[in-house]
C-alpha cells in the first residue's frame, strides 16, 4: 500500500470514551424501622460496594483482547531503498520481500543476517508491488490499484504467471498452507482459493464494535492472521474464523531506534515475517534501514476506554 508521498494521510477522530459514571442516592432511615434498616444495610453492601468494584474494572480494564509490547532481541540490516509491501520468512535465514513504488517495484530474496539481496525480479514500471505470500514453491503477489497479481517460482523469479482477483484492491497476502488470506485496505479480511484465486469467504475485522480499516501487510502466525494497520504503529491479531481482533501489538518503540541507525526518509511500519520453526517474529517498515526480530510481552498496564482506538484505528482510506 502506498506511503505518505502518494496518499493523503487521514487521522482518526476517535476520542476516548468518557469514564462510566454511576450515581446512587443514600437512603434515609428512621429508628422505627430497625428491621427494614437491616435489610437496607444488606442492600447497601450489594448495590454500593460490589458495583463500585465492577465500575472500576469497566473504567480501566480492557476486554478480553490482549495488548502486547515488543522487545527487540536482534537487529538486521534492511535495504533503506526498499519500500516494503510484503515480507515473509522462507527458511534457512532467508526472507522474501515485495517492494512498491512505480518504477521501483520488485520481488526479492534477501539474506537475513546481512540484508544482502540475493535475487531480484524488477516489475514492469506500470505496476506497484504489494503483499506477498508463499504457498508450496509458489510466491503470490498482489499489486496496488489493480486486480492483477503474479505467481512466481520461488527458485526462479523470472518464471511467473498472472492472475486476477476480485478483492477491491491488492494490499496484503498470507496463507495457512491451505487458503490465502487477503486485504484490500478496507476492514475486510478475505479467504481466497489459491487455485482459482476467487474469494471463498470474508469477514469484517472489528474491535469492540469498531471496524478496523486500512488492513495492510498480513502474516499467518499460530492460527491467527496478523495485520499491519496502515498509518499506525499497531499490528492487529485477528481471528480468521470471525474477524474479531484478539490482540494488539504496540510497536511505537521501534521508530525510536531508527534515527540511531541513520534513517532519514523512513515511512510507515509495514512487514511481518514468521519463522515457525524457531518461533521468531521479524518486522520492518517502508524505507527502514533496519529489520527487527522482536519478542512479545503481554502488557499488564490497563488502558482507559478509547486509548487503543486512538492508537490503532484510523478513518478508512476508501470512502
Compact overview of the structure:
The protein has three helices and 22 strands. It has helices at residues 34-60, 252-257, 307-312; strands spanning 66-77, 84-91, 94-99, 106-111, 117-122, 129-135, 138-143, 148-153, 156-164, 172-175, 180-183, 188-192, 199-204, 206-207, 210-211, 215-221, 224-229, 234-238, 245-250, 269-275, 280-285, 290-298.
Verbal overview:
There is one protein chain. With 319 residues, this protein is mainly β. It is 12% helix and 42% strand. The protein has 3 helices and 22 strands. The chain has helices at residues 34-60, 252-257, 307-312, and strands at residues 66-77, 84-91, 94-99, 106-111, 117-122, 129-135, 138-143, 148-153, 156-164, 172-175, 180-183, 188-192, 199-204, 206-207, 210-211, 215-221, 224-229, 234-238, 245-250, 269-275, 280-285, 290-298. The strands form 5 sheets. It has an 8-stranded mixed beta sheet with strand order 16-17-18-19-1-22-21-20. A hairpin with a 2-residue loop joins strand 14 (206-207) and strand 15 (210-211). The longest helix has 27 residues, at 34-60. The radius of gyration is 24 Å and the shape is globular. The relative contact order is 0.19.
Amino acid at each position: 500500500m502506498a506511503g505518505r508521498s502518494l496518499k493523503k494521510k487521514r487521522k482518526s477522530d476517535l476520542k476516548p470514551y468518557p469514564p462510566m459514571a454511576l450515581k446512587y442516592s443514600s437512603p434515609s432511615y428512621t429508628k422505627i424501622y430497625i428491621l427494614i434498616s437491616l435489610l437496607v444495610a444488606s442492600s447497601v453492601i450489594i448495590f454500593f460496594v460490589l458495583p463500585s468494584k465492577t465500575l472500576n474494572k469497566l473504567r480501566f480494564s480492557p476486554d478480553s483482547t490482549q495488548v502486547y509490547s515488543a522487545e527487540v532481541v536482534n537487529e538486521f540490516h534492511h535495504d533503506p531503498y526498499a519500500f516494503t509491501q510484503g515480507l515473509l520468512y522462507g527458511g534457512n535465514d532467508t526472507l522474501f520481500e515485495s517492494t512498491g513504488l512505480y518504477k521501483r517495484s520488485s520481488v526479492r530474496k534477501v539474506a537475513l543476517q546481512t540484508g544482502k539481496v540475493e535475487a531480484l525480479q524488477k516489475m514492469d514500471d506500470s505496476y506497484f508491488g504489494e503483499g506477498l505470500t508463499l504457498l508450496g514453491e509458489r510466491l503470490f503477489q498482489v499489486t496496488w490499484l489493480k486486480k492483477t497479481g503474479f505467481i512466481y517460482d520461488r527458485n526462479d523469479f523470472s518464471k511467473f504467471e498472472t492472475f486476477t482477483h476480485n478483492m477491491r484492491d491488492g494490499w496484503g497476502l498470507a496463507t495457512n498452507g491451505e487458503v490465502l488470506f487477503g486485504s484490500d485496505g478496507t476492514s475486510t479480511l478475505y479467504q481466497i482459493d489459491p487455485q482459482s484465486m476467487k474469494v471463498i469467504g470474508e469477514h469484517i475485522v472489528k474491535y469492540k464494535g469498531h471496524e478496523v480499516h486500512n488492513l495492510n501487510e498480513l502474516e499467518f502466525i499460530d492460527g491467527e492472521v496478523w495485520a499491519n494497520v496502515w498509518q499506525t504503529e499497531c499490528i492487529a491479531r485477528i481471528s480468521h474464523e470471525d474477524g474479531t481482533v484478539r490482540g494488539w501489538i504496540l510497536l511505537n518503540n521501534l521508530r525510536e531506534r531508527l534515527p540511531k541507525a541513520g534513517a532519514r526518509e523512513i515511512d510507515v511500519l509495514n512487514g511481518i515475517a514468521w519463522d515457525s520453526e524457531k518461533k521468531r517474529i521479524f518486522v520492518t517498515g517502508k524505507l527502514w534501514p533496519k529489520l527487527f526480530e522482536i519478542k512479545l510481552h503481554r502488557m499488564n498496564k490497563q488502558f482507559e476506554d478509547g486509548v487503543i482506538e486512538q492508537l490503532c484505528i484510523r478513518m478508512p482510506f476508501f470512502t
